[in-house]
């Protein structure tokens, strides 16, 4: 009796190799996509947080001027929203927390998008300084005041920014009162 010794080839077929490659490509593509989505979400969250703080700063500056007016015994809206003031009701203005000899409030115009972009100092402050060490940012802040009654004003702060072709906007409204 003679027994035949058949050895089986121990390699991958082309079909098995192609299936393995497809599975590997799908796994890498899925991981890359998840990382890209995570980075995009991080960038959006960071920009939205900056926009929130820029809007809050706009409110704080208006409140500060109102409070200073009270301490000086002036009308609570002096320099803010009276006729001819930068943030006259219905007009769009910008708030500069670091004015460097300029007023805190400056009229931009009557339409949205008329304010310049904010600039950032090397130490991280945002403002409108024209110093060459300050760089343009992607953020634009606009403030508009609306009279509710003689003792109440509504402040609308809008922060716009763009990333590539995507335009974002953060709007927030707050009312301040004449507490004098």
From TrEMBL:
The chain crosses the membrane at residues 12-35. Keywords: Membrane, Transmembrane, Transmembrane helix. InterPro entries: N_methyl_site. The keyword Transmembrane helix applies. It comes from the Bacteria. NCBIfam families: IV_pilin_GFxxxE (TIGR02532). This is Prepilin-type N-terminal cleavage/methylation domain-containing protein. It comes from Candidatus Zambryskibacteria bacterium RIFCSPHIGHO2_02_FULL_43_14.
């Amino acid at each position: 009796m003679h027994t035949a010794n058949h050895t089986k080839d121990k390699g991958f077929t082309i079909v098995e190799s192609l299936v393995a490659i497809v599975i590997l490509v799908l796994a890498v593509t899925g991981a890359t996509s998840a990382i890209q989505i995570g980075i995009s979400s991080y960038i959006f969250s960071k920009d939205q947080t900056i926009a929130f703080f820029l809007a809050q700063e706009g409110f704080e500056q208006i409140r500060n001027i109102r409070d200073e007016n009270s301490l000086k015994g002036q009308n609570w809206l002096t320099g803010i929203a009276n006729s001819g003031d930068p943030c006259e009701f219905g007009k769009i203005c910008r708030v500069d927390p670091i004015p460097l000899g300029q007023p805190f409030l400056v009229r931009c115009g009557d339409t949205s998008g008329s304010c310049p972009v904010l600039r950032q100092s090397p130490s991280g402050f945002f403002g409108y300084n024209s110093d060459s060490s300050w760089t343009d940012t992607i953020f634009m802040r606009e403030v508009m005041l609306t009279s509710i009654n003689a003792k109440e004003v509504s402040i609308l702060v809008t922060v716009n920014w763009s990333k590539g072709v995507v335009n974002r906007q953060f709007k927030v409204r707050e009312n301040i009162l004449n507490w004098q």
